[in-house]
Amino acid sequence: MGRDGALKGWPVTGWRHDRLETREDVVIVEEPLEIQVALPREGTVEIFPVAVTMRTPGHDEDLALGFLYTEALIPEPAVIARGLSLERPSPNEVRVILPMDVWIDRERLTRHFYMTSSCGICGKAAIEAIFAHGYPPLPEEEPVIPIGLLYDLPRRLREAQALFRRTGGLHAAAIFDAEGRLLWLREDVGRHNAVDKAIGAALREGRLPLSRSLLLVSGRAGFEIAQKALRAGIPILAALGAPSSLTLELAQAAGMTVVGFLREGGANIYTAPWRIRQSPSSEPTV
């Protein structure tokens, strides 16, 4: 049973019609990751374990940064340029060392957020807390996406999911620009982890807020995913599955466009439908 990063070989006994066969399958690796925050202060360093999440190894630094930013523990994207650094005390730990001049709420740090790979952060305060922590204002006039381009994004997502093609066991989050170019794609056993990884990658490159971008997720559009997209300044959230009622309430209050049940040839627009327009006759719509 060999292992290669995010993948692991596993012997499988399978039935194919009426024939029994034994072979080695490839499964996705799931392991805990502890996210820590270190605060240097006058010759000492305070270390706070902040979160433990079950994740697929790979892009762990992006995951840590994306999580801390979307949870408003990193106060603003500019912190990256002011000397933030990363350490790996062990393969299953990421330590984010904040610059000395960054103020952070120690009480929030000492409140551990325990996550599972399927449900995201549980027991979070609802919409009022999202607005209290702040988020970049969403643009009121753009982007406006032609429906034909939107229909094509699931295909582009599938083609970029290298690990899913091998295992069938991963969620994906992809950030596209307004012209449909894929900017970042991340895969993980946890759908919220995939989103944190994609947003963390954008944060490390100094690209936030993502005000001319679209986030596409391979599953449903739950509240925690909408919250993360809003924190990153993403005006359009699209999902292959359904949104939840709390997602739609948050999106409606913030002016975010939510698209559900997206497929080639169909989509439901739940909020801010003005950001999706009819395709010109020269564009394919299927």
TrEMBL record:
It is found in: Cytoplasm. PANTHER family: FORMATE DEHYDROGENASE, SULFUR CARRIER PROTEIN FDHD. The active site is at C119 (cysteine persulfide intermediate). It holds the Pfam family FdhD-NarQ. Its main location: cytoplasm. It comes from Candidatus Thermoflexus japonica. One of its GO terms (molecular function) is sulfur carrier activity. This is Sulfur carrier protein FdhD. Keywords: Cytoplasm, Molybdenum cofactor biosynthesis, Transferase. Gene3D superfamilies: 3.10.20.10, Cytidine Deaminase, domain 2. Belongs to the FdhD family. The keyword Metal-binding does not apply. Required for formate dehydrogenase (FDH) activity. Acts as a sulfur carrier protein that transfers sulfur from IscS to the molybdenum cofactor prior to its insertion into FDH. GO terms for cellular component: cytoplasm. SUPFAM superfamilies: Cytidine deaminase-like. GO terms for biological process: Mo-molybdopterin cofactor biosynthetic process.
